[in-house]
Amino acid sequence: MATITHHTVAYANDKQIHYLAAGPINGPLILFIHGWPGTAITWKSQIDAFSAVGFRVVAPDMPGYGQSTARRVADDYCQEALVEGMMALLGDTGRDAAIWVGHDWGAGVTSSVATQHPEAVKALVTLCVPFHTIERGWQGFLPLVNRELYPAEEYEFGQWDYMRNYEEDFEKTIEWFDQDVAGFCKAGNQPSAPISTRFAAITATVRKAGWFGGLPKPPGVELTGPPLLPADVFDSFVGDMQKTGLWPGSAYYLHHARNAEYNGKLVGKLDQPVMFIHAIRDVVCDTKTSRLMEPMRDACSNLTETTIEAGHFVHYEKPDEVQAAIFRFIVEELPSEWPGFWTAGYTKRKGAVAV
Length: 355
Hints:
The chain is of the alpha/beta class and 355 residues long. It contains twelve helices and eight strands.
């Protein structure tokens, strides 16, 4: 198990980011950026695995979560403000570039970092949410909805209807979440089911039917099975979420137009190694039967894709497979960032003579 240390970096005068760090201080730097909802500790499996082989691993509580600044100030959570925080985080490590790994909104933020500061990205790995989509506002992903599954006349916003719900009824939505934060988090931490046929995601009818199909409040913790995360990690995560509530983290969804202007000014083509991890059971971030991957494929000249049989929280459900995929990606595409590359004296000899 990794020895994890706690750190805090101040930025933008009155804000701070708390982060976890592990592994040798001089090891190649890899940053793990969580999404909604999440905190640094939800990367515990990856922190242990990557630090054990010699990486310097950093995982922040993103703004709005955990011990980082979590004000009810919507401007704190636009992509421009989040990138400012990420650059402060990177600077606090003493490095000027890193491998960035992001999931969900964390993938949106790492994609924004890669767009705005490509020099700070040695390699980019995104899970479930492709580069050049969510961080570019509605136009970055809404036109890519599978309209055979989500006819526009019935599902104007496709599976992203819940995002429109935030814009139209934010405070009421937060009140619903906050009735039972632990129950909500546990319900979202359940194993995925195999998909035999594609069906409309429950997120496609939130404005009409409500969350979880119209339940008056999130299901209680006693109504769902064991969470995907280990019990101690899950309990720490829930404690973090109960501290902040869902308002700050959900405010990431309130800036589509502003984010489009911020990132849309730049072409955002990437030549450095990039990997995307498809979660084949993810019915919301559906990258297999929709066109959601098209912008990433167009924008990245060195793209690796891999598919894992899991749901949206693929790194909780199949951590070993996620770690193996990222390990292989780094070894094959960016070997200079593998720990010990320059110092291990590794020599390959061909044509050994049989005795």
